[in-house]
Amino acid sequence: MDDITDGLTEVSCDILVIGGGTAGPMAAYKAKRRNPQARVVLLEKANVKRSGAIAMGMDGLNNAVVPGYATPEQYTKEITIANDGICDQAPVFKYASRCFDIIQELDSFGIRFQKTENGDYDVKKVHHLGTYVLPMPNGDTVKRALYRQLRREQILISNRYMATRLLTGRDGEIAGAIAVNTRTAEFLVLRAKAVILCAGAAGRLGLPQSGYLWGTYENATNSGDGYAMAYHAGAGLANLECYQINPLIKDYNGPACAYVAGPFGAYTTNSEGRRFIECDYWSGQMMQEFYSELQSGKGPVFLKLNHLHSDTIGKIEAILHTVERPSRGRFHENRGTDYRERMVEMHISEIGFCSGHSASGVFVDEFARTTVTGLYAAGDMASVPHNYMLGAFTNGAVAGEHAAEFAAGRDLPDYDPSDVEQERARVLAPTRRDDGIPPNQIEYKARRMVNDYLQPPKVTAKMKLGQERLAEVREDLEGAMVARDAHELLRSLEVASILDCADMAAAASLFRTESRWGLYHYRVDHPEKNDADWFCHSILRKQDGRMMLEKRPVAPYIVPIEDEERSAYDRQRIRESA
Amino acid sequence: MIASASAKAPNEEARLPIAYTPTTLPVVVDEAKCIADKGCTVCVDVCPLDVLRISDLTGKAYMKYDECWYCMPCETDCPTGAVTVNIPYLLR
Prior knowledge:
The structure holds two protein chains of two kinds. By secondary structure, chain A is of the alpha+beta class. Chain A contains 15 helices and 17 strands.
């Protein structure tokens, strides 16, 4: 295993799904259900059984729009406000209208959701305005339940293949993808009538403060490959400057899970044990207050549970130490932190791209279509803001169904064989060198530069310097990176995605000359929000081989927002009372 | 392939040789319990980061690459309880 082997196989399918985490399996499943005759391939860099953000399951739904608790209109309004108004509502409304069906479908797969004694869904309030959080008592079984459905529908699963570039046809339409086996370096050319990108967040962009490359908030496999592939295929990417930055357990870098512990009575405090934010729902405005508190004399910030009854804490531990990031129990044990006695120290994460929590993603409409014909995107990497796990499932379903119909009326497009040759040369270049710089060092340096120059507070002169440093790293990546086996080759390809994302982060952040989304895009030399010039999306795309940016109007709202509602998320800080 | 202190590559400016820096590995396999030598590859199969391998020498699973997200499928899915995931030293 891991020896570099020369080889290339070509296969054809109707619908190719790239990424087998959350959105991908649902997209593949729904495509096949919509057209049982279709050949559906699900490609995964790791193993579909345990891949992506929910490799170890999830403790609940953060954004369930359940009849009786919330309406699609309310949810759409809340997400629009939480995103400072920069939100095409159609995809959000589509999600909100569709997600309850998906909850019931997941239920039929054997994934249970918490119910009250009356048999109603037991939805909790965590957001600023509405009630959307639904616990999943057997959330550790999510991946297994999905996998069963994929087997039943006879989806063709290819594990340990990393897609590296999309193939396009004569008119720029999608024609398939090129992938590399992560253990043999053999190539797979997948021709397809439609491609659905579900490759997750760009979670390995900033460097965690621990300095450990793999100590990220996101599953460390999520290196932004989907963002890079979409970019190189000519798709538009929206609002990348609206970074993902999350409040996490310091050093462990996993979620402190105020969404889980909050409904039990836990909350975020400063070192005096006092609340300083109105609500623990993750938004740029909340992160700004969190950041300010960390920097102030009242820092650091903690998750406070030690006022709760021991039995209540036992219930919280039973969730947090078995699902999503179960090793956090061990982390606390090493440090002798018992929730009953001590507060849990928190900090803010490194930056990343992720629409699951913020709004930085490949631009999609309400059918999950990107700006490239035949190319769809769903989940953390698609631009539907704050869509979380249920959004990945729901928008994955939307993508799968639409792609199945699109593919049914289409012939298999031709691709240019020279594109494959060029990509083989790019991919294998690090294996052709006898000596050079290993991918882990190139990655460390690129990500350290991201921290030093690109993370907020954003300063124009610093970001421009960062672009120079990153260009130097790119020279090393393209001219001197060496991979000694197929596993290092996998890492070298991921570093290329990371560097592409770093360049995109810098360009998008420099483009928007205002501050918006709280900390996510706080530009010190443009500190004010400027609706006159910047009430719009920024769209980044590759044109004639170069990165370009343009404004795109926000689509007219379908759910109106009253003027007095617009600033609800700006009022996060708790007012000092006399 | 690269030796740990190779000479400079031809036609290139002087490159820096690659070191082998020691590091502690978070994933520990109890070789007495591991049944990889009987054909089991569960932990290798499920690892998202693909950092586990079966040793040619011992026939047992081990952590080959120090790239751990401490996520625990290897430990949870091991049929004999042979795998333990520790928190990587740098973040303890």
